[in-house]
Amino acid sequence: MTYYSKNFLSLATSLAAIGIALTAQSALAADAGETSAQTESSTDQSSAPAASTSAEEYGDMVIVTGSRTAGRTVYTSESPIDSFSAEDITRTTKTDLLESLAVLVPSLDLPRTPGSSARIVRGPYLRGLSPGHTLVLVNGKRRHATSTLGVGGTSAAQSVDIAMIPSAAIERMEVLRDGASAIYGSDAIAGVINFITKKDDTGLTAFGRFGTFGDGEGKTYSAYIGKGFQLGEQGHLYVTAQYEKRDRTFRGSPVPADILYYFPLNASGNPILPRGSLTQPTLPAGATPDPREATRDSNASQIQGESPYTTKSLSADLGFELSDSVRLYSFGTYAERDADLFNSFRLPLRNENVRAIFPDGFSPIRDQKEKDFEVMVGLEGDIGSWNWDISTTYGGNKARIGAHDTVNPSYGLDSKTKFYIGTTDYTAWTTNIGVKRAFDLPISAKPVEFAAGAEYRKEKFLVHAGEPQSYSCGGASVLDGPNAGMPLTSYSYCGSQAVFGYTPDNEVNAMRNNKSAYAELSFYPLENWSISAAGRIEDYSDFGTAKIGRLSTRFEIIPALALRATIGNAFQAPTLATISYRAQVNWGTYIAFSFPVTSPEALALGSRPLEPERSNNLSAGFVATLSDRIHLSVDAYQIKVKDRVSLSTTIRDAIYPGSGALLVSVGLEPDAAINYFINAANTRTRGVEAVLDGLVDMNDLGRLRWSLSANYNRTKVTGLAETSPVLAAFNVPVFSLADTRNLENRSPRSKVVADFVWSIGKFDLNLRETYFGKTIRYGTPTTIPTSGPYAGMREIGYNIGNLFTTDANINYNINDQFTLSLSANNLFAKKPALMPVPLLQPIQSYAYDESGPVSSDGAFFAVGLRAKW
Asked: Which segments cross the bilayer (predicted)?
């Protein structure tokens, strides 16, 4: 608790406790007549249809996120919140909800992570914090996490895979841009994303789209259908089916001409060893190149570009009035995704290749087949003046990982070319119960609203080993070439190349439970002044108990201007995968090991048990109505996070000379690499957000809806983990400068979005201009340069931001049933900066850094057709 204000926490929890006492007293004296301010059915399960998002109605849109108080709107909320309708989602031209969010929310970024599973499973960076710091809800209920570790390129993130939620099922999205852990539990450090599902009981909607990048690659096929059914006079059922398929793109550079694919030939025509290294082989003096060099495929290295995938999903939303006072509600999703991830090209002459199988080399492909599901069922109703809600949610994600177009060279001709790598499996079962009511008290100018409840969650994380040949050593030798007969005993020659299998030692069977209780109280000292307090106690079976509080307020100076502010704290336990994950990655010339923090290897290097992340946040701003149709909101924020969890520095002799002895001391080869999870740093994020929106009625020229939104933030590391004496003796920092700078610069410093929607006659025209500010990246070269502008630099920084992108969309409403759309994303094909030469792989002549919000794929064009009956 030394990191927080104990006085604040005491105040928040005391206010919640007072609410309980006042409520109990009021309940004894209450009668049915006191329910004039009674809230309707659960705010988490509000079945009211989404309002139009025109500027004149936007401020009156009732929201259900950020407070359990009924009737609050986007502009009367005590915290900054955005609400986007299904129409807004459609207008982004994205069928992936995560990509829609990145378009619509200025303070949310979606960086890419080439060459890792995070390329497949991405996550949102809200207010500059990692995906694991944003809580995701569906209909107000916590969504389960993915089984993949490292979501969004943040090594410790095991967050929700939003792309597995079908966009066809969503009526609207609400994004709370503020900490809310006291209301919803851990994870809500940066904010909350709540998806509200469609609850139509009639109608049929169908949609199809085809798109491609400007060069014809990356063809994308999308389709969905949604149908509502009326269940008598008491209920509804809304079901959807959705499909999306994307082909791959190639954005890599040709292999440099001086890099040999095949062994050079001596004067007798026999193959000999090249000059240089096996990763950068060149022609030695007096030798001639193999004739096959003239017809080789110089574009064989295909690690850069979009990964191909196919996603299929189903959803159902059910609601039924069991009686006048009891309602059944349920929601479920099921999704499957098949995706491929290309890895670095293996040259034909390398010892890692079995030339009898791949005479021209190979590009290993990681294939990931996922199944994702969630089922939620609940009851809500009224007893006297009280509204109650009880629900249970069970969901999970399983990823079966494989590899193909690769070999295990240590098995020689007996090597497979397709491997089962292993399976990761995560499930969560959450049950909660809540009550709330409103009542009159003399201390409040408006009815006081009180809510309380409890939650129990059980998590389980499993890792299953792959087949033996995916990780074992077969004992074979090099079969041909100048190195014929050389034993392939080094660990880098064992297992499937690039995608190393999970060994029996990597298997995990971890579980834990979490119990929590909360209370929330909202009251009005004056008609124009609201105060809300929330307190929560969380108890993890593996990390103990934490007390969380939140205090927020809104003061309306005049009807057109209001101030608002929030202060709160949060607690987040390391994920099960972070605690227990163990893996190896075969980089071709060496093996990189990731060990659990409690493993003998990590302990020998000075690791310490992981601590929970603890945070506090403060935000303040104002909301102004400049005219009936123009609104402005500005909010400043500060978020401090203590003990942020991340992977340590990767310890490798090529980067930290002499550290190979450390690796040998823990039983590894001297040219291997090792890292493990640590509480790496304390950070402070400060920023400001602004949203200005309006509506112009141009009579015969139609209506123009416009918005200008911006976010600026900076993250600063305010403290670093202490390097152990073992590492310090070899001049190895436990968290390097490059790691520190990347933690500080994961998101662009600024993001500005100007959006215009012009509706005239049967046409809707949408133009969106987005500016991504300075985005700094730091990389560690494979070998420290000895000459040139980067000589002696262990960490190299460069900017991939300062980019403008333009999106355009035209909708033509053919009639009441059919709408034709034409769209262009990144119309002018803007691309990120090229990487510094020392950070390139030996077989690259150039490479775009695709870890930012803009890829190197260029412009994307699409045509779509929507039908409604």
From this structure: none
